[in-house]
Specification:
The complex is a heterodimer.
Chain A: H1 18-36, E1 40-41, E2 47-49, H2 50-53, E3 67-69, E4 75-78, H3 83-91, E5 101-110, E6 122-131, H4 135-156, E7 163-169, H5 170-180, H6 184-195, H7 199-208, H8 213-219, E8 226-227, H9 230-236, H10 243-261, E9 268-271, E10 284-290, E11 298-302, E12 316-322, H11 323-333, E13 343-348, H12 354-363, E14 367-370, H13 376-385, E15 390-395, E16 398-404
Parallel strand pairs in A: 1-5, 7-9, 13-14, 13-15
Antiparallel strand pairs in A: 2-4, 3-4, 5-6, 6-12, 7-10, 8-9, 10-11, 11-12, 15-16
Helix pairs in contact in A: 1-4, 1-11, 5-10, 6-7, 7-8
Chain B: E1 2-7, H1 10-21, H2 27-30, E2 37-41, E3 44-49, H3 51-60, E4 65-69, H4 70-76, E5 81-85, E6 91-98, E7 110-114, H5 117-126, E8 131-135, H6 142-146, E9 151-156, H7 160-164, E10 167-176, E11 178-182, H8 184-189, H9 191-204
Parallel strand pairs in B: 1-3, 1-4, 7-8, 7-9
Antiparallel strand pairs in B: 2-3, 4-11, 5-11, 6-9, 6-10
The chains are: A alpha+beta, B alpha/beta.
């Protein structure tokens, strides 16, 4: 027998009983939240043409997508992301629907993870997209909905789990880098080091590549621009003369102040070293962190260029929550309350009593398991081994308890 | 609580010196016994691990911070914050080949042996050169001498091992030293505690 027959591919996972419960129940709670706020659920196919995901600012490397061919030999991929299919739908079947269009999804994505990294290649993601509409109000809605989502997760695990939503702006670093007119190689390195909060390497590379010292002096401070609102003021000193960087800070500050004035600032922080997916995002970006997960579990922001890949020109914002990581890591660390319901095994002596047994099962109020045994002794034996606390036998004369734990 | 993973050995010794300088009590680390966790301050704990494992633990967030060589960080390529260059354990990645041969000569297919295949691949990708990388686990110097490869990419401190074996450095690939790495989620969720440690360390470097 092939060894493969008993195994599953790397990065994939069987989720048995309680292993899938947290993900499912939490996913349903979050979906209910989105429904209540008027988002419409969209389900898209697991297989889509590679072309849908093949555009310049694509953030998922081609080599991380599972590829196969359809029956005509065309290249298709396992859905590597949920936002792009939502954009495709918004630009096609929902192109005439009123804007803003508010969509949500709760479905798996597939991305090839590194060997032995302990990261999954298939995971459940839930999130929202707001397409069209006034961009400031949409940004605010996306942020408060993200906060509400994180609160739902924290609440699911007893409320003692800390979370933070961190705001940034995709154009702050981008504007400063654009103004510096770096070579492609230098820009790639600077971007990488800012993203890794690596000030010392920025210093070294500045000297090695003979980059403008005044510019590098500014850039070196970017990695530390995270924390409370005060970092925005610090950042202003760095963007003298770079109009787009100032504009990004103004906009971010305005959004922050609105959230603050409405009492949302407790779980919000700021990080201006936002360089990830700099060409994909076009405005306010945010990331959500929760205790015990070790990574950003929620990510999103404004992406005004994506829709143009599908032939329409409208702004959009949204976010996705990595439901699998959240459910998996938090269930391990904090645990979920197990509600162990008492189970009863319902045995029926003669097959003519089947309908009577089923009727009892429907109405008994417990979790009731229909016996698949032809003798009551075997049924009791099974109950003992399976955590069933009671065996009830249906006979022609009535219903009697024959064994109890 | 903040948990710090230290790379066992030389890096650990130097890191302990720094921790003591900034006021942590490292007595448990001087008398290890069979312990696996070492408390060095109120709500600050150290674990010791091999270099690769330091990166893995910090990557997964089971340790908030770590001290590890840049070589390991580069080879493993994870998404981590690299907040400080601690300045010790200095050496470099370099490309070396047999003395008197010109690695970059001609158009022929080049083979490079290394214990660090990812660093090697990344370096040549950056150079726009297509080379074949062969992973070697032990003394890499042997590979070009046996005729397996045209050159090697390895950690070079003084270059004396290379010289003794008739090899010489032809290019520096990257400088290496010990770094303070931080898990991104930890930095955001435990900002005050972690910032304090980073700032104290930066002040004594």
């Amino acid at each position: 027998m092939s060894v493969k027959r008993k195994n599953i591919p790397d990065g994939m996972r069987d989720m048995i009983y309680s292993e899938n419960k947290a993900e499912k129940v939490l996913g349903e709670k979050i979906a209910a939240l989105y429904e209540k706020r008027g988002y419409g659920c969209v389900v898209t196919p697991a297989l889509e043409y590679y072309d849908v995901f093949n555009f310049d600012s694509q953030t998922i490397p081609e080599e991380n997508m599972f590829k196969l061919t359809d029956k005509s030999g065309r290249l298709v991929v396992m859905r590597p992301d949920n936002t792009t299919p939502m954009a495709r739908i918004a630009a096609t079947r929902l192109q005439n629907a009123p804007r803003p269009l508010k969509l949500y999804y709760n479905q798996n994505v597939f991305r090839i993870s590194k060997d032995y990294s302990g990261k999954r290649s298939e995971f459940a993601q839930t999130g929202i997209e707001i397409i069209g509409g006034d961009s400031k109000r949409a940004d605010i809605e996306a942020v408060v909905t993200a906060l509400r989502t994180l609160r739902e997760v924290s609440g699911f695990y007893g409320g003692n789990v800390n979370y933070k939503l961190e705001l940034g702006h995709a154009h702050f670093c981008k504007a400063l880098l654009d103004a510096a007119k770096l070579s492609d190689e230098a820009r790639e390195l600077v971007t990488k080091y800012i993203g890794a909060k690596n000030s010392s390497s920025l210093e070294v590379m500045g000297a090695d590549n003979k980059l403008d010292t005044a510019f590098m002096e500014k850039i070196r401070q970017i990695p530390r621009l995270y924390g409370t609102k005060s970092v925005i003021a610090k950042a202003r000193e760095l963007c003298l003369g770079v109009e787009n960087a100032t504009y990004a800070l103004d906009y971010l500050e305005e959004i922050y102040d609105i959230l603050d004035a409405n009492g949302f600032s407790e779980n919000i922080s700021i990080d201006l070293a936002t360089v990830n997916d700099m060409d994909y995002y076009t405005g306010v970006v945010f990331r959500g962190y929760i205790d015990y997960t070790g990574e950003a579990v929620l990510g999103g922001g404004r992406y005004d260029n994506l829709m143009s890949n599908f032939g329409t020109d409208e702004g959009a914002t949204g976010f996705g929550l990595n439901l699998s990581v959240v459910a998996d890591k938090l269930s391990r660390a904090v645990g979920v309350e197990e509600t162990t319901e008492k189970k009863v095994l319902v045995h029926y002596g003669d097959t003519s009593l089947l309908a009577k047994a089923l009727n009892y099962i429907e109405n008994c109020g417990n979790v009731a398991v229909l016996s698949c045994f032809d003798s009551v002794e075997k049924a009791v034996e099974y109950a003992k081994n399976s955590g069933i606390s009671k065996v009830t036998e249906v006979t022609s004369s009535g219903i009697a308890e024959v064994w109890q734990e | 609580m903040i948990r710090i993973a230290l790379t066992k050995g030389r890096i650990e010794e130097k890191a302990v010196e720094i921790f003591e300088k900034i006021g942590f009590d490292c007595s448990e680390l001087h008398n290890k016994g069979r312990k696996l966790f070492f408390n060095i301050g109120k709500d600050v704990q150290v674990v010791l691990a091999k270099a690769n494992d330091v990166v893995t633990y910090v990557d997964h967030g089971v340790c908030d911070m770590g001290v590890v060589g840049k070589d390991t960080i580069m080879e493993m390529g994870r998404n981590l914050y690299e907040c400080l260059d601690l300045g010790f354990g200095k050496c470099r990645f370099a490309l070396a080949c047999k003395k008197g041969t010109d690695f970059f000569e001609g158009y022929g297919h080049k083979i490079v042996a290394s214990k660090y295949p990812n660093v090697t691949k990344e370096y040549f990708r950056g150079q726009g050169l297509d080379v074949e990388v062969v992973k070697i686990d032990g003394s890499v110097e042997l590979a070009p001498l046996l005729g397996l490869s045209d050159g090697i990419v390895d950690i070079v401190e003084t270059g004396s091992t290379l010289k003794e074996n008739g090899l010489e450095v032809v290019r520096d690939v990257a400088p290496i030293s010990a770094r303070l790495i931080v898990n991104p989620a930890s930095l955001k969720l435990k900002k005050n505690g972690i910032d304090k440690i980073i700032d104290s360390i930066a002040a004594v470097l």
